[in-house]
Write a sequence for this structure.
């Protein structure tokens, strides 16, 4: 118990001394404090125009974000053997002298993001940073990266270089054997060449989304056997080579959404046995080849929404295909017998929803889950066009009773009217179709025969009975 108490006292004294040492040499306009990871100096939003002349010797983290720094000279930070993290984001840096980071032998994380005037880096800028693991160059408006800029960083694991002005994947990435994450989105990259990613054997995540990529060359990812997440969404891809993703056996996520693809080829995903998430949404896909997804036995979600698909055959998934979720909305589906399997699968699995039919007209607007498919006498599927027209449609609205009676009266009047003599009928044209009842019935003079009078009374009585019968049927 006494030993434990002495240990706590010693630790307390050590912590107090470390705190005192950290705050004793704290730069003006900065705040300093000691934490679990060592001494920390915060100089963010301090209005600094130059790097402070002195920092605590034991400092582990320096934050100089959102100041007005424009230039870093030789050994800009002196000698800080314990510094592991340095952040210079949101300044006005336009030039960094080669050797500016000398004297920082243990630096593991360097953040230079959002220095829009930087534009250019010397090939020897990071020469002294042999232990650097994370480098942030985002939104620096860099036009290029010198070929040897990153060659001095053998420990580099993560590179963030998005929101720059590259036109191709920086050649400086080639050969970075320990790089695991590369963020190159929104950088105006137009192509992924066959040699762009050469030697990146430990790369696990690559983001190329929201660029201007029109072409992915065959074999571009052949050295990236450890890749798990590949984002190529929101580019200009209209086609892919047959073996575009060959060798990516560990790939879990592939995002090709928001491109201009018109079809899905059978060869694209043939080797992606561990793929779990596949995004093909927001393209112009109108055709999926048979067997296109047949090897994706572990797929958890497939996004095909927002395309031009009218049909999707079960042959695209066979054989033995299992799928967690299937997203198919915003497509002009034709709900005929070719989609009966989808309706049945939806009912059995419940992992598909919102598949509105665009055609045929009898089921347009219905979800496919509401479409009925019939069977012929020999067991074949019958397209739902006529079947659903009679089942789902409420049918024509009943006509008003007055209209029905009027039509019945007109027809009955024509049947009861006396025929004109042959020679008179031959010289008359057909009267108007919608003639009134008074025009259809024969006129009777005061001196007419009793036979004509009886005939007229009988006709009127029969007409009245017919009118009441029609009214009764329409009411009940």
């Amino acid at each position: 118990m006494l030993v434990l108490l002495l240990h706590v006292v010693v630790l307390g004294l050590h912590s107090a001394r470390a705190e005192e040492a950290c705050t004793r040499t704290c730069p003006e306009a900065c705040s300093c404090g000691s934490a679990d990871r060592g001494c920390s100096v915060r100089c963010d939003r301090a209005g600094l125009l130059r790097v402070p002349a002195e920092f605590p010797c034991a400092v582990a983290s320096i934050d100089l974000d959102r100041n007005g720094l424009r230039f870093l000279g030789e050994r800009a930070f002196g000698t800080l053997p314990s510094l592991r993290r340095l952040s210079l984001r949101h300044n006005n840096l336009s030039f960094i002298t080669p050797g500016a980071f000398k004297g920082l032998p243990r630096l593991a994380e360097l953040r230079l993001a959002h220095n829009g005037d930087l534009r250019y880096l010397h090939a020897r800028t990071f020469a002294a940073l042999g232990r650097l693991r994370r480098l942030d160059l985002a939104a620096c408006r860099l036009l290029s990266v010198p070929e040897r800029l990153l060659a001095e960083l053998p420990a580099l694991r993560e590179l963030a270089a998005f929101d720059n002005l590259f036109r191709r994947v920086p050649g400086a990435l080639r050969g970075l054997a320990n790089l695991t994450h590369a963020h190159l989105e929104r950088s105006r990259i137009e192509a992924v060449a066959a040699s762009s990613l050469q030697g990146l054997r430990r790369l696990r995540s690559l983001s190329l989304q929201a660029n201007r990529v029109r072409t992915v060359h065959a074999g571009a990812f052949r050295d990236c056997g450890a890749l798990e997440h590949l984002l190529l969404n929101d580019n200009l891809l209209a086609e892919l080579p047959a073996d575009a993703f060959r060798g990516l056996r560990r790939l879990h996520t592939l995002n090709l959404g928001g491109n201009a693809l018109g079809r899905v080829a059978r060869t694209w995903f043939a080797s992606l046995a561990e793929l779990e998430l596949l995004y093909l949404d927001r393209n112009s896909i109108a055709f999926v080849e048979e067997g296109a997804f047949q090897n994706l036995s572990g797929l958890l979600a497939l996004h095909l929404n927002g395309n031009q698909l009218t049909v999707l055959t079960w042959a695209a998934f066979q054989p033995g295909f299992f799928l967690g979720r299937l997203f198919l909305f915003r497509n002009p589906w034709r709900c005929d017998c070719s989609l009966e399997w989808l309706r049945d699968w939806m009912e059995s699995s419940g992992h598909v929803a919102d598949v509105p039919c665009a055609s045929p007209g009898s089921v347009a607007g219905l979800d496919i889950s509401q479409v009925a498919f019939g069977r012929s006498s020999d067991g074949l599927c019958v397209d739902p066009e006529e079947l659903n027209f009679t089942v789902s449609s409420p049918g024509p609205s009943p006509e008003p009773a007055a209209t029905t009676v009027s039509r019945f009266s007109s027809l009955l009047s024509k049947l009861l009217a006396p025929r004109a003599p042959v020679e008179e009928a031959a010289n008359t044209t057909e009267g108007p179709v919608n003639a009134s009842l008074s025009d259809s019935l024969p006129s009777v003079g005061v001196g007419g025969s009793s036979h004509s009078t009886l005939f007229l009374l009988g006709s009127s009585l029969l007409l009245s009975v017919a009118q009441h019968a029609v009214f009764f049927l329409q009411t009940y």
Q: What stands out?
A: Residues 450-475 form the longest helix (26 residues). DSSP finds seven helices and 25 strands in the chain.
